[in-house]
Design a protein that fits this description.
The protein is α+β, with helices and mostly antiparallel strands and 241 residues long. 76% of the residues lie in helices and 6% in strands. It has 2 domains: 84 residues, no CATH class; 129 residues, Helix Hairpins. It is rod-shaped and about 135 Å long.
C-alpha cells in the first residue's frame, strides 16, 4: 500500500489522540471514589440492618424497664399503706403482727425487684448507647458518601470534558488522512490492543519496542517515502522519521 508521507505522519498524531481517549476511558472507569462509594453503601446497608435489630431490642428493654419500675412502685405503695396502717394505732395486735411480717416480706421483694430493675437499666443504657453509636456512624457515612459523590461528579465531568476535546480533535484530523490508510489503521488498531501506528526509530518499532533485523532495515532504506510499512512482529503501521 502507498500513502503520502504526510498522511502517514498524521497517523502518529491520531494514535496519540486514541491513546489519550483509551487512557481517559480507563481513568473514568477506575475513579477511586466509585469503589469507595460502593464500600460505604455496603457499610450503610449492614449498619441499617444492625440498627433495626438494636432499635427493636431497645424497644423491648424499654418495655421491660417500665414493667420493672411499675413492679417496684406497686410494692413501695403497698409498703406505704402498711406503714400508715401501723402508725394509725387502730390495728389489733394480730393485725400489727401480720402487717410487720408483710412489711418484712415486701422489703425483701422490693430489694429483689430493685436489683432486677438495676440490671435492666444497665442493659437499657448499653443498648441505647449502641443505638446512638450506630446512628452517629450512619450520619457520618452519609456525609462521606455525599462528599465522595461530589468528588466523583467533578472527576467524571473533568474526564468527560477531556474525552470530548480529544474526540473533536480526532474528527478534525481523520479527514486529512487518506481513507485507505485510515481504514488500515483502524483495522490494525482494533486487532492490536489499540495500537495502530508507531514510529520507526533507527531499527526499533516503538509499537512493540523490538528491533527489526538488519536485512529488513536495509530493504526499508530502499523504499519510497510513500510506501506503507508494517512491523513484522506486531503488524503495526510503521511511520519513518
Amino acid at each position: 500500500m502507498k500513502a503520502s508521507a504526510q498522511s502517514q505522519s498524521l497517523l502518529i498524531e491520531l494514535q496519540l489522540i486514541d491513546n489519550a481517549l483509551v487512557g481517559a476511558a480507563n481513568r473514568l472507569r477506575a475513579i477511586p471514589e466509585r469503589e469507595q462509594i460502593t464500600a460505604i453503601l455496603t457499610r450503610l446497608a449492614k449498619s441499617a440492618e444492625e440498627l433495626a435489630v438494636v432499635e427493636a431490642e431497645l424497644a423491648d428493654v424499654t418495655i421491660d424497664l417500665r414493667r420493672s419500675e411499675i413492679d417496684v412502685e406497686q410494692v413501695a405503695e403497698r409498703m406505704k399503706k402498711d406503714d400508715l396502717r401501723l402508725s394509725s394505732g387502730g390495728a389489733s395486735p394480730k393485725e400489727l403482727e401480720s402487717l410487720q411480717h408483710e412489711l418484712v416480706s415486701l422489703a425483701k421483694r422490693k430489694s429483689e425487684l430493685e436489683d432486677t430493675e438495676l440490671e435492666i437499666m444497665l442493659r437499657h443504657d448499653s443498648v441505647k448507647t449502641r443505638v446512638e453509636e450506630l446512628r452517629s456512624d450512619e450520619v457520618g457515612l452519609q456525609k462521606l458518601e455525599l462528599e465522595l459523590n461530589v468528588r466523583l461528579e467533578n472527576s467524571v465531568a473533568e474526564i468527560e470534558k477531556e474525552i470530548a476535546v480529544k474526540k473533536a480533535e480526532r474528527i478534525a484530523l481523520t479527514p486529512q488522512i487518506e481513507q485507505p490508510l485510515l481504514d488500515l489503521y483502524e483495522k490494525v488498531r482494533t486487532s492490536n490492543s489499540g495500537m495502530g501506528a508507531a514510529l520507526l526509530v533507527g531499527n526499533t518499532c516503538k509499537g512493540c519496542n523490538l528491533a527489526i533485523n538488519a536485512i529488513e532495515v536495509e530493504r526499508i532504506k530502499t523504499l519510497e517515502a510513500d510506501e506503507v510499512l508494517r512491523c513484522e512482529e506486531c503488524r503495526t503501521i510503521l511511520v519513518r522519521i
